[in-house]
Amino acid sequence: MRAFNILLLFLFLVSCNTPQAVYDYDQEVNFSNYSTYALFPDFRSGLSQLDEKRLLASLENQLQQKGFSASSKADMYVNVYTDEFREQNRNSVGIGVGGSGRNVGVGVSGGIPLGGPETYLQITFDFIDVKDDALIWQAVVESKFNPDASPKERQTQFQKIVQKALEAYPPKK
Description:
alpha/beta, six-stranded mixed sheet, two-stranded antiparallel sheet, 3 helices, globular
């Protein structure tokens, strides 16, 4: 039973660090018409050069796995932009004191935050029809991000983010 409880705690902690995504797309588009891609001409991710290189390597790998090939005469542009923000850690320990007497209750409680603010990265992936210059598909992925992570850890994080972004492409109509 103890091993089961430890497994549940581990799964809970791992799931808290999983990237979360939301998707949107043009319902009129036939996504099977797209097989080639290029980066948006004015591509600026907002990441450092090293992190942008990691992100692009992951993105190219995932796009190739989905059957896309890079081309100078692409059907679709891919644009990616990021926003980094910090949020206060949501974990806290509650302390409460209460009492009652003759149907009258008195209570005092409070929360003590655990840890400092956490850094999050929100990455937006836009797929744009080259011919019509129109947004056809979008994924917005939010994930915890450790700015002090090693290069290998950063690469792994970007792989998870890109995989989460592209798991819903092409959309199921």
